Amino acid sequence: MHLTTDNMVRRKEVLESSCEQRARMLQDQFSVSVNHVHALAILVSTFHYYKNPSAIDQETFAEYTARTAFERPLLSGVAYAQRVVHSEREKFEKQQGWTIKTMEKEPSPVRDEYAPVIFSQETVSHIESLDMMSGEEDRENILRARATGKAVLTRPFSLLKSHHLGVVLTFPVYRTNLPPHATAEERIEATTGYLGGAFDVESLVENLLGQLAGKQAILVNVYDVTNSSDHLIMYGPRYPDGDMSLAHESKLDFGDPFRKHLMICRYHQKAPTSWTALTTAFLWFVIGVLVGYIFYGAVMHILKVEDDFHEMQELKVRAEAADVAKSQFLATVSHEIRTPMNGVLGMLGLLLDTDLDSTQRDYAQTAQACGNALIALINEVLDRAKIEAGKLELEAVPFDLRSILDDVLSLFSGKSRQKGTELAAFVSDKVPKVLIGDPGRFRQIITNLVGNAVKFTEQGHIFVQVHLAEHTKSVMAAKANACLKRGSDEVEVIASQTQFNTLSGFQAADDQNSWENFKLLIADEEFCSDASDNWIPTGEDSESVTLMVSVEDTGIGIPFQAQDRVFMPFMQADSSTSRNYGGTGIGLSISKCLVELMGGKINFISRPKLGSTFTFTAVLRCQKNASSDLKKSPLEAIPTGFNGMKAILVDGKPVRAAVTKYHLKRLGIIVEDASSIKMAIGALCGQNGHLRSGNGKRPDMILVEKDSWISSEDGVLPIRFIDWKQNGCMLLPKVILLATSISTTESDKAKAAGFANTVIMKPLRVSMLAACLQEVLGMGKRRPQGKEMMKGSALHHSLLHGKNILVVDDNMVNRKVAARVLEKFGANVECADSGKAALMLLSLPHKFDACFMDIQMPEMDGFEATRQIRLMERKENEKIKTREVTYEGGSKTEWHVPILAMTADVIHATYEECVKCGMDGYVSKPFEEENLYQAVSKFFESKPI
Amino acid sequence: MLGFGADRLRADMNRLLALLFHQGVLDEQFLQLQQLQDETSPNFVFEVVTIFFRESEKLLRNLRGLLLDRELSDYKKMEIHLNQFMGSSSSVGAKRVRNVCVAFRAASEQSNRAGCLRALELLEHEYCYLKNKLHELFQLEQQRVMAAGVRYPIQG
């Protein structure tokens, strides 16, 4: 807009200046002409009247005016008319030789006076002898001119010849020199003639404007505005077109004060809509729109983002709430399903107690098995829900990792034997004997991984290894370096091998576990164990160790497309998997959660059709003074009777040999390698025959791997061996066959070959190995067979036996049941029916070892009661510290009775709430044996009283 | 002959228990209760259930009294009673009674008098049913013990 107005202003200014310019030019030209006409008038008066006889005649005048015409460009011509009064007419006509004519070229009628043209320029010679007074305009002009003595102009009228619009300029010529202030009468009296000239304004202005640039652009109108109400047009169209919006008026002074003239300029065309203005305006507009749009967009975007953010936040909150709700729901529902399921199982148990025929029994047993599977699944779901709800906490009790692995192997030994797959476990010597952690959960992970491995492996092996993570890492790094150095020749060797150097000779998914690496790991280990007999915690972080557990199988592997969702709950490789192998696919996700809870990571390498290797790390603490605590822990002790014995192991496969060696070493047996029976017997012969002195101990046993035996020329050599035996060489070592599976024919053959009753079935486990060896070596069993039955509820017995326990519950029925459960575990139970009564009973000193406290009680609830008990204890402990109170023998140094909350609600009464008020744990109500055991074991196991 | 009778009675008991389980009157907690019974406390189940009956009747009486009180019922007190009832019923495994208690408590939390009354009636009904059935069970057991001449712990 500004630009447009700017443009308008500029336009106006241009118009003004050009209009003024035109007006001035016109005026100047005009006045020049007027001056010249004035000069002519003076010339005429000087040479025509003051000279006698007159110096001017028509000829002279015509020539002079023609030659000075350039001086009067605006005048079409000039003429001189003499004043002739009527009395002088005749004389004048005679003198001139023509009669005075009117403008219509007719002899003039009688008048007072006449003004016939006597001299005229050639251009206007047609007006000679015409009486100027006869034309109306001329007459007025003449009258006015002689009265004022100045140049006067007519109003514009159509000129005689050209019919152009024009004005006539008239100068009076006086006979005598008039005084400067002569009156009008004097002037009229003195007048002798008139000099006139016709301005052909139209063509003249045209010419004039033609000399100027931009004449087309500007429209010029010249008006006679003497009569202000009626503008007489002098030049230009009568009804001017063009741009009416803008006009400029310039005054013209043609020297006649009576007449007023005006020039009006207009633009010929409407405001030439300036393109620049238009484009810039448009651009500005576009820019404005764009900026506006950008701003609008930005604001909208911000608003949208904000909205989205709020929405997301809300969604997040909702999702979190939903997640918590889901977990709670799962926990609750699982719990709720478990209850009727237990009913179903109980009833199935009852049903199985009744008289059933075999089909019915089969049905019932199937139902029970399914029920058990369902319960197991529900427990898993509950586990997951608990983990997700952050309600699963890990125990921290000492345990022996090796025995856990043995347990897991024994769990799957039946299945693996059925399939003929080799199942083995190996724990690095660097792993401490006793670790502190959650054995149950650790076992759960390994059981899950091994279970999967067994499920999906039809041939080959399943190999569980445990190493220290730091150690493995360093060895692997070293190995990588070595590989780089050694170059390509080794690669060739590996490629040409048809048998792989793994446990069973089958190729495994993760090459890292092949013999090359394993050798390094073990070699390093042996070196270390030479250097220091015991495991020494490394570095400053001596409290915790990071274990790396790998479970390798040679099963079907995991399809690549399914590998990224292995750890998602309820996801299986594909639908056919569950069809063929069963399972829910929740196990791995739980394992992952558990591993993460243990501060580790789980991952896997899998190649379809080759197998998978799952590896996880777990951070556990290690027991500081391992030897002293080992005895206290309720772990299965390893028989020590084999200490110092010597064995020769015949196994062509180094990995397998290492595993066997590991188990034998655990029994304290020193093992020597031999890759074949020949070699073993060679070594034996050497010892027998030539008495290889030095390491003089004779081997007590020779363990032969079945593969080695089969491959060694159908047991020819063992026959030689039997010969020796028959020769009465009593000091010969026992020969034992190790086998994964053995057929009847094979076992017959083995018996024939001298392995009578000395076949050890794999998977190897220390307890089993020890038992077999005892049998073979005739050492006799040192432990009663029934001891292993002592687990289960017997453990609870021992755990709670003789303990004084206080049960606090306002509900008589609950009290009775809880008391009965605890009594059944051998505890001495006392009851209290309110928090207050409990406080009374627990006032110090008291005899109670533990207290089970109901949370919801009238008057004083469990939390409050616990708080008060703790307060009481704190006061007493202060006193003990300051030795104000002493107890007999000074045995009590601190009072802290374990208080366990009893709650019907597993989810709501959270652990934290209990801990906050000083409780030590909680058990769900109604009591469940397992739950109770878990809760109680924390106090009575780790704190031997 | 005597042994056969005991077996039949045992089968009857199992049938009755199965029925109660099927109907959802009892749950596995009752089996746990039975497992707690042995030589040292041969009448444990009976004792507990008797206490349960006594307590429950007291509670039911109180609840009815509270609800029929013309004045505005004391919902707070009612909830305490109901918590008691829930605790004891879940301890003996009286599942349906417990479930009704849960509904009752929900109604009382909302101060829904009509709902409370309905729940109370249902609770009384469930309780009577349970009591009858358990009495039946105990009678069977008594007969069985007498028939067998010897008492065996009931194994689930």
TrEMBL record, chain A:
Compartments where located: Endomembrane system
Keyword annotations of the record: Kinase, Membrane, Phosphoprotein, Transferase, Transmembrane, Transmembrane helix
Coiled-coil ranges per UniProt: none
High-level lineage: Eukaryota, Viridiplantae, Streptophyta, Embryophyta, Tracheophyta
Major enzyme class: transferase
Membrane topology: Multi-pass membrane protein
Superkingdom, natural source: Eukaryota
Gene3D superfamilies in UniProt: 1.10.287.130, 3.40.50.2300, 6.10.250.1190, CHASE domain (3.30.450.350), Histidine kinase-like ATPase, C-terminal domain (3.30.565.10)
Residues bearing PTM 4-aspartylphosphate: 854
Protein name: histidine kinase
Residues of the Histidine kinase domain: 332-622
A molecular-function term among this protein's GO annotations: phosphorelay sensor kinase activity
Domain Response regulatory, first and last residues per copy: 646-777, 804-940
Domain CHASE intervals: 52-264
Keyword Transmembrane in record: yes
Transmembrane segments: 275-296
SMART domains xrefs: CHASE, HATPase_c, HisKA, REC
Reaction equations catalysed: ATP + protein L-histidine = ADP + protein N-phospho-L-histidine
CDD domains the record matches: HATPase_EvgS-ArcB-TorS-like (cd16922), HisKA (cd00082), REC_hyHK_CKI1_RcsC-like (cd17546)
Enzyme Commission number(s) of this protein: 2.7.13.3
Gene Ontology cellular-component annotations: endomembrane system
Automatic annotation (TrEMBL), chain B:
UniProt keyword Cytoplasm present: yes
Ranges where the HPt domain occurs: 41-137
UniProt-annotated location(s): Cytoplasm, Cytosol; Nucleus
GO terms assigned for molecular function: histidine phosphotransfer kinase activity; protein histidine kinase binding
An example Gene Ontology biological process: phosphorelay signal transduction system
Predominant localisation class: cytoplasm
Keyword line: Cytokinin signaling pathway, Cytoplasm, Nucleus, Two-component regulatory system
Metal-binding is among the record's keywords: no
PROSITE patterns associated with the record: HPT
GO cellular component: cytosol; nucleus
Superkingdom of origin organism: Eukaryota
SUPFAM superfamilies assigned to the protein according to its UniProt record, in alphabetical order: Histidine-containing phosphotransfer domain, HPT domain
Role noted for this protein: Functions as a two-component phosphorelay mediators between cytokinin sensor histidine kinases and response regulators (B-type ARRs). Plays an important role in propagating cytokinin signal transduction.
Domain notes: Histidine-containing phosphotransfer domain (HPt) contains an active histidine that mediates the phosphotransfer.
Protein name, UniProt field: Histidine-containing phosphotransfer protein
Taxonomic classification: Eukaryota, Viridiplantae, Streptophyta, Embryophyta, Tracheophyta
